[in-house]
Amino acid sequence: MQNHLVAALDIGGTKIAGALVDGAGRILVRAQRPTPAQEDGDTVMRAVGQVLGELTASPLWARAEAVGIGSAGPVDASLGTVSPVNIPGWRGYPLVERVRQLTGRLPVELIGDGVAITAAEHWQGAAQGYDNALCMVVSTGVGGGLVLGGKLHPGPTGNAGHIGHISVDLDGDPCPCGARGCVERIASGPNIARRALDGGWQPGADRDTSAAAVAAAARAGHPVALASFERAAQALAASIAATATLVEIEIAVIGGGVAKAGDVLFTPLRRALRDYATLSFVQNLTVTPAMTGTDAGLVGAAAAALGSGARVGAGASA
What is the rounded CA–CA span in Å between residue 272 and residue 259? Predict the structure, then answer.
């Protein structure tokens, strides 16, 4: 498989990344553009086209056998469409067909971004060797995916494990998805920062109001910053424990930009997990950072295209 080559796209609310990836998961060529997330759908697609344009210009493109896409969700792999919560211009957007038009009609495999990180972590990362795992990406949004019985479990439309949009606060803040108190509304990077600002935290001289800046303040002992991360950790712990109780996962792997906060996130998360994962068969659940880093979405999308245990079915390849 090492001689195989595929194209991969990782589409999120902040960036659109692309790569040519070989059968060993090595990224040989990469390209990236900011996501014009608040623009109309065709403007977003033009950014995707620019990324693909850089890939198709590579001499290696001639070897590309397929395209894998990991996209912010929800996605519908059976129809080849995407409706990302954080890209409002895409609702039922025919992404697979548009990508096929730009890539010489290569086969295209579509999975959600949470499923993509799961494919990457099970193939090359912290979930290797585990038959039952939850892998999460906590960043601009919160997504996830499941490995059950040793195999990726994307579900009929490619959204199984979409943990960011389960409610952990029944009377909580409205979420853009339409529900209330979703994990994403509490634990995503922008919401960690929003809560810290609402609580009176002030950014430094650089005026950086990102979750990374809040994490730095938390490491320095700022009580409001610490409280915001503890609230995020509590939401994540509740959702992880619920998932473990439902399907008996053995490990929860957490990646994405917010996970870079390190102990600021993981220490209160593991502490809160003891309050929620109380039944005997979930008490030994392991929680660990992802290993595949910022390239997880690309590696996972490539895994889908390569069919490395991550194929989501022919529906997205039409």
Answer: 16
